[in-house]
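Researcher: I'd like a candidate sequence for this fold, 458 residues long. If you have to choose between options at a position, lean toward the conservative one.
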């Protein structure tokens, strides 16, 4: 069971989540994975940035005091046993002392490395796990708080986007199995963070608590992964943009991965990878509406029924366009992706013209300048590199699209009738996904037009 930041935003919510664990732990072996309290990770990142630009011991002390107040209030509301409360406060005091020291160190140095940044943002989860575990103990369960490293999530040194090392499953199993099967203990593991083999804390990328849960589930051959969110499950579109969106009761791994890659915030893009080989289902549950059935993600692929099952949008993207005449396409492709990889640019989508004279690459807006500068060196008088800013990427996803004629025609005809111009198109070989780029100003309108075209709200 993984609980997101909104689910554990304060003491009342933590107690509610702990009671959910208690309810299901009566008949199941449960591992809990927790995120930081809502807003804490961003607050830590902002504090670290401020320490570089505005070195101030007074600011650091004030920031840490605010953090202490929020977490101690959570303990006061969630943990009912006084002795347990005293123990967890003592644990938190040591962590706050470490946090203050590292922020002061950054203030004095005026420098923040990726390694230091990972160490700082890890405090959110490292503060929450002991509180959640103490709450479980106060409810009568045996529990222990573990960092990702304690649980065996050993990673490489790619700070900010660390990946588990080969053989990590056996390490995790050796550490958690005895707690579950022999001691009948509920481990509460920090999501989002791991540790290198030499002991440095790493993070798995924003939203990485889902990934932590799936890594642990795969290591333990879990029956299911439950991701507790603040929504009932996966919707046909983001209800913030499309008010008449509906819950999807079942969806395949392939469909869910397409959606998460193309902007659906319900899942970390890597979260399903460890589960697919072992066919472990994922259940999206609503923390605040626990009786709702939610969405089940599994290996079942249903091509019947809805042709398009769901839509997603990435609002802030850019396109880097490489064009020219007479270049060796295989050679230039290799050079392009080598340059992007060296500059740590994540590619969202690629489209190639049939004449082999044009390649369009979609990247996140924050990577736009880096991608453009990395590829600018390809220009030679024949090959040109241009950048298109302020584009949105819309994706239509559904297993029923495979082998169904006319889906793309319906999408583009509907957009055309509504005066929406398409900048770029890409379709996956699985035929589960058609994605296209449009001007930002048309993004939400396009989402609603396609949602209505396929009657996803009815």
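Model: Candidate sequence:
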């Amino acid at each position: 069971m993984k609980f997101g930041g909104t689910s554990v935003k304060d003491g009342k919510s933590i107690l509610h989540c702990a009671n959910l664990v208690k309810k299901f732990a009566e008949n199941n072996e449960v591992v809990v994975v927790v995120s930081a309290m809502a807003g804490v990770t961003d607050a830590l990142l902002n504090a670290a940035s401020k320490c570089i630009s505005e070195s101030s011991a007074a600011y650091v002390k004030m920031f840490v005091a605010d953090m202490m107040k929020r977490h101690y209030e959570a303990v006061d509301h969630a943990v009912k046993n006084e002795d347990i409360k005293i123990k967890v406060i003592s644990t938190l005091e040591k962590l706050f002392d470490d946090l203050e020291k590292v922020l002061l160190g950054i203030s004095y140095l005026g420098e923040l490395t990726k390694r230091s940044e990972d160490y700082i943002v890890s405090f959110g989860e490292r503060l929450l796990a002991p509180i959640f575990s103490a709450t479980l103990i106060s409810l009568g369960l045996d529990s222990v708080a573990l960092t990702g490293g304690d649980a065996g999530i050993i990673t490489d040194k790619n700070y900010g986007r660390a990946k588990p090392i080969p053989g990590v499953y056996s390490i995790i199993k050796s550490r958690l199995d005895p707690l579950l099967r022999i001691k009948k203990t509920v481990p509460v593991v920090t999501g989002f963070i791991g540790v290198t083999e030499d002991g440095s804390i790493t993070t798995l990328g924003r939203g990485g608590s889902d990934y932590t849960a799936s890594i642990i589930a795969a290591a333990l051959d879990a029956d299911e992964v439950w991701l507790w969110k603040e929504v009932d499950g996966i919707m046909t579109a983001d209800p913030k943009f499309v008010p008449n969106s509906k819950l999807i009761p079942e969806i395949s791994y392939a469909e869910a991965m397409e959606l998460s890659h193309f902007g659906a915030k319900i899942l970390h893009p890597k979260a399903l990878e460890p589960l697919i080989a072992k066919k472990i289902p994922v259940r999206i549950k609503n923390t605040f509406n626990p009786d709702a059935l939610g969405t089940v993600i599994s290996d079942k692929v249903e091509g019947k029924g809805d042709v398009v099952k769901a839509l997603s949008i990435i609002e802030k993207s850019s396109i880097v366009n490489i064009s020219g005449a007479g270049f060796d396409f295989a050679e230039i492709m290799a050079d392009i992706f080598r340059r992007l990889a060296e500059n740590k640019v994540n590619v969202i989508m690629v489209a190639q013209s049939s004449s082999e004279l044009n390649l369009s690459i979609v990247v996140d807006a924050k990577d736009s300048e880096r991608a453009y500068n990395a590829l600018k060196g390809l220009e030679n008088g024949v090959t040109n590199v241009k950048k298109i800013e302020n584009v949105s990427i819309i994706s239509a996803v559904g297993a029923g699209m495979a082998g169904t004629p006319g889906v793309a025609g319906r999408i583009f005809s509907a957009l055309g009738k509504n005066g929406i111009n398409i900048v770029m198109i890409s379709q996956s070989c699985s035929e589960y996904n058609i994605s296209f780029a449009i001007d930002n100003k048309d993004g939400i309108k396009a989402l609603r037009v396609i949602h209505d075209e396929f009657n996803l709200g009815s």
